[in-house]
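ok so I'm stuck.
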Amino acid sequence: MNVVDRFLKYVSFDTQSSETSGTTPSTEKQMILAKALKEEVEAMGLTEVSLDEHAYLMATLPANTDKQIPTIGFIAHLDTSPDMSGMNVKPRIVKNYDGKDILLNKENNVILSPKMFPELLKHTGEDIIVTDGTTLLGADDKAGIAEIMTAMQYLIDHPEIKHGKIRIAFNPDEEIGMGASKFDVEKFGCEWAYTMDGSEVGELEFENFNAAAVTVSVKGLNVHPGYAKNKMLNAGLIAMQFAQMLPAQQRPEHTEGYEGFFHLTGMNGTVEEATLSYIIRDHDAEKFDKRLKLLQDTADYMNKLYSPNTVKLEIKQQYRNMREIVEPKKYIVDLAEEAMKELDIVPLIHPIRGGTDGAQLSYKGLPCPNIFAGGMNFHGKYEWVPIQSMEKAVKVIVKIIELNAKK
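replied:
not stuck anymore, here's the structure
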């Protein structure tokens, strides 16, 4: 199978993860794809194939030379986002895209337009896989899985390309931030690896946000409104006041590049009690810590303004910037950059404005930059992927392996 055939096969599996299950994998349907992939890698002739009870699949392409070459790995995730259904995905290939609007769903008037997504125009003349406007596509990250599998088959079919031991892994629950939670780095046995989970062609990322989730709990005092003067504490209004005290220009809709943010992701409340849910992000560790301190200072101020214990914070650290781990071994980024340049792909090295399994894996001892997989507009019905982008990703994997053996 070529990369397109594999991709179309994999997106037929519904592997949407769940933020509420508390298990790994968070949904059993991820295991169904993992088992299918296990059969496929075994049929390909890969060795050291293992699939554990948590849906972590690992396999080896053995070295075909006696030369001492570092063992490297390639990783992609099984799950799709909880943000939109991945059930009954109906992909369609738009051949030789002409730069105009693409009607995804006539009944619901869902249109993929370069007016909204100008990056489409960069792929004029290419063949684009789109959704039918009712589900996500699943290029995040089944494009990555298809690319890794296709690259392994290519190397099997071309033994003249000498390489060291190559490890591959497919893991669950990346979309809910748990992809690396039970990843056995020692068992994987690599000096470094690459996640194939980026977007546009050329993306090469080795730094990401520091991240925390914060819950702000507000306790009010509810009395009869007719007799509330100097007594009532309205938790809903106090929560709104808390939100307004944070800098408005440091919200996601006003930031880019290395700029961090406070993002209010949910709120609910009554007079008696209210909660605010935030995610906090910043690439700079010092600025990140200052953001958390500002939240605490705001809570302390409001407790003085009203009464002690009116506002409480629960801060959950999520992941750290992998740059601290990868930068001392920058040659692993340089290797991927060189591979792209040899293939006439312009490397796009910039920070991830989000997270990646590679960040957590880096802190578990496996330095792990992220490489493009080609998909665009992840997590929704406007998701799409150019076939040519996936083909380039396959070539990058092969070229990295080839260059690693030569150095």
